[in-house]
């Protein structure tokens, strides 16, 4: 199964929690139907991306990265790569690369939510997961980050945009 096929399957099977998320789920599916390269950054009309909110083992904090280019506190994530067999693999790879934390485990049940946003390269049709860090995890700043920091849930609103706040809220509801 190709990454494109996996993304289409994930989105077709994902039970959207509300009408706004359902509209995005359908739009993402239409995008994949229209574009054979819809999961790759080369798709100039936008592309599927994968991200993961990293949660500490005690499930009391989240790890955010101060993105080097965007200069915003965000969850870990980004473009799919040819080595990614599944969308969940892309999210987990991105989270591990950007956090420096090995052994992350995605929360079961698939994506937490969807978020569509314009970036300097194109529209990102982000499929957002959540991952729990193992006990004793130590984060390490990557080349894509200016900073990396753990935030308590109540601190996220002070530093992050609405997209990240919604992801944190949706993730907490699953914990």
How would you sum up this structure, described in words?
With 175 residues, the chain is α+β, with helices and mostly antiparallel strands. It is built from five helices and eight strands, in the order H-H-E-E-E-E-H-E-E-E-E-H-H. The chain has helices at residues 3-13, 19-34, 87-99, 153-159, 162-174, and strands at 47-55, 61-67, 73-74, 76-79, 105-106, 113-118, 123-132, 145-152. Strands 1, 2, 3, 4, 5, 6, 7 and 8 form an eight-stranded mixed sheet that branches. Strand 1 and strand 2 form a beta hairpin. The longest helix is centred in the first third of the chain and has 16 residues, at 19-34.
The biggest sheet amounts to: 8 strands, mixed
By secondary-structure content and strand pairing, the structural class works out as alpha+beta
Distance between the termini: 31 Å
Total beta strand runs: 8
Note the overall shape: globular
- Please indicate the percent range of residues in DSSP E strands (runs of 2 or more): 25-35%
Q: State the low-pLDDT regions, or none.
A: none
Helix percentage range: 25-40%
Radius of gyration: 15 Å
The arrangement of helices and strands along the chain is HHEEEEHEEEEHH
Give average pLDDT, whole number. Answer: 96
Number of helices: 5
